Amino acid sequence: MRHVRAQYLRDWIVDPEFPLVWRLRRERAGSGALGDLGSHVIDLLQHLTGERLTGVSATQTTFVT
Description:
- About 35% of the residues lie in helices and about 0% in strands.
- It is mainly alpha-helical.
């Protein structure tokens, strides 16, 4: 396999009234939401394809600051 595109879409995070949980705080989550949730996407892709990923490219946008 050469290319896979994955998205993790959640609507509860964009609610401005939702508390800023640990996974959204870089100082607590280390790499922030991308590292926390992205690791699960990588794990799922490897499981579904049966192949090991050799590289990852990612972008991140904050909708509610």
